[in-house]
Amino acid sequence: MAAPANSPTRSDAAETVEDATGPGRFGRLRRWLPKSVLGRHALLALVGLVVLVLVLEATPPFANSQFATMSYYAIAAAGLTVLTGLNGQISLGHGALMAVGAYTTGLLLTPDGLPLVVVMVIAAVVTALVGVVVGAAASRLHGPYLAGATLAFAIAVPGLAIYFHDFLGGEQGMQITAPRPPAWFSDAVYFLSANETSGVKFLAYVGWVTALLVLLLLANLCSSRVGRVWRAVRDDEVAAELAGIKLGRVRVLAFTVSAACAGLAGAVLGVVVRLAAPSGFTIVLSIGLLTAVVVGGLGSLTGALLGSALLVFLPPAITDVGTSIGLDDVQAAQLAPLVYGAVLVLVMLLAPSGAVGIAKRLVPGFGRGRGLRGRSSRDHHSTRRS
Amino acid sequence: MTEPRPDPVPPPGAVRTAAPLFAVDGVEVRFGGLVALDDVSLAVAPGSVHGVIGPNGAGKTTLFNVCCGFVRPDAGTLSWHGEPVRDLRPHKLAGTGIARTLQGVGLFRGLTVTENVMIGADRHRRAGFGSALLALRRSDRDERALRDRALAALDELGAAHYADRLPGSLPYPVQKRVALARALVAEPEMLLLDEPASGLGEDEMAELGALIRTLTARMAVVLVEHHMDLVMSVCDRITVLDFGKVVADGPPDEVRDDPAVVDAYLGEEAVQ
C-alpha cells in the first residue's frame, strides 16, 4: 500500500522543481485552460461532445448500439466510483438502483406523455430518494457488513418486480417505448454529417449527452469542498468528526448522489434496451459495475469511463479470440467471464490503483491540475517567491 | 526549571478567580465495574495553558474524550463560557470553538497537506452543495478563501513548504505540525492537545513549548502530556490524575512539591 501512496508525491516534488525552472509541457498547456473550475470542466465536456459526434457519425449502427450500452455503464460507474473511491462506501446494490431508474422510466414514458428529459429527471430523483433510505441504513455499516446489506438490496429489488407482476410486468418485464428522434435532431445530424438518424444513434446521443452532463457535475463535486469532505471521511472518521463534519450526513449525501447517477443510468438503460426486466438487474450487473470502477481506477472518473468501455468491448473481443483459437461458440462465450475474473484479480494484486493509477505512474503530470488544487497553491508559492 | 516565557505569567490567584472558559465538574465515568474517572473537576481559564498529567491509565485520555463528547459521563457536568453543555457531540465541537489534536496524528492520508488543513477550516465555509455541484463562482471563491486560511496556518507552523505533499511521505514531526495546523486553522477558543510532544526530539519540543505559549494570546490550551519538562515549563496550571481521581491541582511549582503527586507520578518515574 505504501508504494502507490508514495508515487503521486514523488511526481508532486518533480512538478515543484519543474515550476521553479519554468513551466513544463503540462504547465504551458495549463496556462491556456480557463481559470475557473466550471470553465475547465465545461471545456472538457465540450471536447467530449465533439469527440462523441465524430465517433457516432463515423461508426456503423452496431458500434452505435455498443456506445449506447457503454453510456449507461459509464453513468452508473461514475456514480459508483465517487461513492466507493472517494467516500469509501462499497455498494453491491447499484444494479438494483439502476432497476429503480429503469422501472420508473418504464412506468412514466408513454408515446404521448411526458418528454424523455422530464422522465429521466424524475427517474433520477426517485432513485435518489431510494438512495437516501438505503444510504441512511448504509451509513452505520462498514466494509463487509455494508457489502452484505447492499447485496441483500440488490437481490430483493428484482424480486419486487416479480411480486407486483400486474403492475411491473413480472418475469417478462415491462416494455418501454423507445422515444423517436425529434425532427430538429434529425435535421441537425443531417446538416452535420449528411447521415440519416437511426433510432439507435439517437439513443446513443441521449445516453452520452447524459453521461457527459453527469461527468461534468461529478467532476465539479470532486474538485470542490464536497469531494474533499467525502475523502476526509473515508480516510479518518474521528479526525473528520472533530473538524465538525457530520459523518452520517456526509455518507448519506454521497450515497444519494451515487444513487441519482444509478437512476439516470437505469433510465438510459431502459430506453436503450426497451425493456425493464428482473433478469437485467441481477447481482452480476452490480458486480460488473464494481469491477469496472476497480479496474479503471477507484475514485477516478476517467477510470470509470475506461472501466465501462471494458465492460462493453472486452467480452466480444475475448469471444472473437476464443473462436479464432478453435473453441466452439459456447466455450468462446464462457471465456469472457473467466478473463474478466482474472483481470479483476490481477488488477487487485498488481495495480490496486487501476488503469488510471498505472497511467499516472507512466506519465508524470497525468490527471493533475484539473481541480483548483495544483493551481492556486502554485500561485501562492509564486507570489511569495516574487 | 522555569524557562523564560514569551507572555508574563499571570499570578496563580488571578487564574483562580477569572471566570473559567471551560469547566468540568464532578465528572464520573464507569466502564462496567471499572471506574475510569471519579469526581473529576477542572477549570480552564481563558488564555491559559492547563496541563493534565498522571501515570498511565490514570484517565487522562478518558477525560479528553469526555471533553470531546466521545464518552458520555455517567455523572457530572461540563460548562462552556459558564453555560452548561448538554449533549456534547464530537462534530459539534468545532462549531463550539474547541479543537483537538489526536494522540496519533490522525491525518487524512489520501489528502494533500493543504487539503488536510482545509478540512480543519471547514467550519468557515460559506458555499453549499448546490454551488459545488454547479461549480458556481461562490464555490470557487469559498475554496480560495479556505485554501488561503490553510496556507496561512501552515506558514505559521513552518510547514507551508510541504503544502502539496501527502502526509504519509513526511517525517513524523512534520506530520504533527500539520495536525496542529489543522486544529489551529479552525480558530478555536480552546485547543485540546493530546500528547503533542510524543515522538519529538529535544529541540522540537522546546519549539513546541514556545509555540504553545504564543497561542495563549488567542486561545486557551489544555495539554495531556508525559514529558514533565514541557508540562512544567508551559503550563499555568496543572491537574494531576491518579486512578481516575484528581490528586492535585494548582500552579506547576505547587504541584511539583505536592507529596501526593510525587507519590503517584514522579515517584513512579524516579523508580524507573
Q: Would you spell out the secondary-structure blueprint of this structure?
A:
The complex is a heterodimer of chains A (386) and B (272).
Chain A: H1 2-21, H2 25-31, H3 37-58, H4 61-87, H5 94-108, H6 116-138, H7 143-163, H8 165-168, E1 174-175, H9 183-193, H10 199-222, H11 225-235, H12 237-242, H13 247-273, E2 275-276, H14 283-296, H15 301-324, H16 329-350, H17 354-362, H18 372-385
Chain B: H1 12-17, E1 22-31, E2 34-44, E3 49-53, H2 60-68, E4 75-80, E5 83-85, H3 90-96, E6 98-100, H4 113-120, H5 129-133, H6 137-156, H7 172-184, E7 190-194, H8 202-215, E8 220-224, H9 228-234, E9 237-242, E10 245-250, H10 252-257, H11 259-271
Parallel strand pairs in B: 3-8, 3-9, 6-7, 7-8
Antiparallel strand pairs in B: 1-2, 1-4, 4-5, 9-10
Structure description:
The complex is a heterodimer of chains A (386) and B (272). By secondary structure, chain A is an all-alpha fold. Chain A has a domain at 37-282. Chain A contains 18 helices and two strands. Chain A has helices spanning 2-21, 25-31, 37-58, 61-87, 94-108, 116-138, 143-163, 165-168, 183-193, 199-222, 225-235, 237-242, 247-273, 283-296, 301-324, 329-350, 354-362, 372-385, and strands at residues 174-175, 275-276. A two-stranded antiparallel sheet of chain A has the order 1-2. In chain A, helix 4 (61-87) packs parallel to helix 10 (199-222), helix 4 (61-87) crosses helix 15 (301-324) and helix 14 (283-296) packs parallel to helix 17 (354-362). Mean pLDDT of chain A is 84; it is low at 1-23 and 368-386. Chain B has 272 residues and is of the alpha/beta class. Chain B has two domains: 19-97 and 189-202 and 220-272, Rossmann fold (3-Layer(aba) Sandwich), CATH 3.40.50.300; 106-187, Rossmann fold, CATH 3.40.50. Helix content of chain B is 40%, strand content 22%. Chain B is built from eleven helices and ten strands. In chain B, the strands form two sheets. Chain B has a six-stranded mixed β-sheet with strand order 6-7-8-3-9-10, sandwiched between helices. A four-stranded antiparallel β-sheet of chain B has the order 2-1-4-5, covered by helices on one side. In chain B, strand 9 and strand 10 form a beta hairpin. In chain B, helix 4 crosses helix 6 and helix 6 crosses helix 7 (172-184). Chain B starts with 11 loop residues before the first helix and ends with a helix. The interface between A and B is large, with 46 and 52 residues.
